Amino acid sequence: MAIIPGIFGINEPVLFGLPIVLNPIFLIPFLLTQVVNIFLCYGAMAEGLVNRTMINVSSTVPVGLGQWLSSLDYRAVILTVVCIGANMLVYYPFYKLFEKEKLAEEQQPLEQNTEDAIEVY
C-alpha cells in the first residue's frame, strides 16, 4: 500500500507504519543508506558517468522522472536504480533480523497458550 505514495516521495506510511522511526534495528540502515547514496552519486558525477544536477526539482516528482529532470541525463535514472539496489542490500540483513525477532514474538504466545491448555486438562 505504501509503494504508490513512495513513488511520489510520501514515505510516512513506511516510516511510521513499519515502524522505522524509533526502531533501533532499522536506525543503522536508515542512516547508512543515505551515506551510501551520497558516495554513489558523488562518485558517478565526479567521474562523469552522470551529468551533475542543474536544477532542484520538487520532492513529490515521481522517482526517475525527478532525477532525469534535474540533470537532463537518462543515466541519472540508471543511477537511481543502482542506488535503490544498494539500499536494498544495506537493509536486507537488518530486515532479516527484524523478521526473526517478529517470528519469535509470534511463536511465544502460541507456546504459552499450549502450556496453559495442557494444565487445564
Structural category? mainly alpha
Q: Count structural domains.
A: 1
Report the end-to-end length measured between terminal Cα atoms.
Answer: 44 Å
How many extended strands?
0
Largest β-sheet summary: none
Helix content percent band: over 70%
Task: Give the mean pLDDT.
Answer: 88
Radius of gyration: 20 Å
Shape: elongated
Number of helical segments with 4 or more residues: 5
Low-confidence stretches: none
What percent of residues are in strands?
under 5%
Brief descriptors of the model:
121 residues; mainly alpha
Question: Can you characterise this structure?
Answer:
This is PTS EIIC type-3 domain-containing protein. Keywords: Membrane, Transmembrane, Transmembrane helix. With 121 residues, this protein is mainly α. The protein has one domain. Helices cover 72% and strands 0% of the residues. The protein has 5 helices and no strands. It has helices at 3-7, 12-17, 24-46, 65-71, 75-120. The termini are far apart.
Question: How are the secondary structure elements laid out?
Answer:
Elements: H1 3-7, H2 12-17, H3 24-46, H4 65-71, H5 75-120
Helix pairs in contact: 3-5, 4-5
